[in-house]
Design brief:
eight-stranded antiparallel sheet, 8 strands, alpha+beta
Length: 186
C-alpha cells in the first residue's frame, strides 16, 4: 500500500549513517565520492546554479539537474531531469521531466554520533511508472550502498560492492515490480 506522500508523487526516505554531516554532505557533492557510491559517470558543480550529470548518453540514460539551494553540511536542493536516448540512433527521447523536472531536497542533520539524511524527491506525475523506480532506487542507494560506503573502508566497500553488484539490478527490479503491483497508484 502506498503512503500518503506516494499518492501525491512525493518520495520521502530517511537514513541514518554512522558518519558526521560534513562527510555525508561531501559524499553527495564530491565527484570522486559520487562516482564511487553511485557506480556511474558523474559530473558535478555543487553550488547554487551549478549543474550535475549522472550517466552517459552512450549508455542510453542520463540524469541532469541544477542546484537551487546549497547550504554546506546541511542542505542540498536540485532539479532532476531524466534523459533517455535511443540505443540505435542516440536520439533523445522526450518525457514529462523536460518541462517539469522533479525536485530533490537532501537534509543532513547531526544525530548522535552520526547523521540523519532525509531525501525528499517530489514532482512525479500521478501514476508515473518512474515513481517506483526512484522510490526503490533512493531506498537501496541510500539505505544500503551509501551507508556501506560511509561506514566502511574503501577496500571493504569495494569488496562488498563486487559481491553485490551483479544482483543489485535484479533486486532493484523485483522491488520496483512488487511495489508497482501492490500500489493503488500503479
Amino acid at each position: 500500500m502506498a503512503n500518503a506522500d506516494s499518492m501525491k508523487g512525493t518520495i520521502t526516505k530517511v537514513f541514518q549513517v554512522n558518519a558526521p554531516p560534513e562527510r555525508v554532505y561531501r559524499a553527495f557533492t564530491d565527484k570522486k565520492d559520487m562516482v564511487e557510491w553511485m557506480s556511474d559517470h558523474f559530473e558535478i558543480d555543487a553550488r547554487k546554479g551549478g549543474k550535475f550529470q549522472m550517466g552517459k548518453e552512450s549508455d542510453g540514460f542520463v540524469t541532469t539537474g541544477e542546484f537551487l539551494e546549497v547550504v554546506p553540511n546541511q542542505l542540498l536542493t536540485y532539479t532532476w531531469r531524466m534523459n533517455g536516448y535511443e540505443k540505435n540512433t542516440g536520439k533523445r527521447i522526450p518525457n514529462w521531466s523536460d518541462e517539469n523536472p522533479s525536485k530533490v531536497t537532501v537534509k543532513f542533520e547531526k544525530a548522535g554520533r552520526g547523521t540523519r539524511i532525509t531525501v525528499t524527491h517530489e514532482g512525479f506525475p500521478e501514476r508515473d511508472e518512474e515513481y517506483w523506480a526512484h522510490e526503490v532506487g533512493w531506498e537501496m542507494l541510500g539505505g544500503e550502498v551509501l551507508k556501506y560506503y560511509l561506514e566502511h573502508s574503501q577496500e571493504e566497500f569495494e569488496r562488498w560492492w563486487k559481491e553485490n553488484e551483479a544482483s543489485w539490478q535484479e533486486r532493484w527490479q523485483k522491488k520496483v515490480d512488487a511495489r508497482a503491483k501492490s500500489s493503488p497508484i500503479a
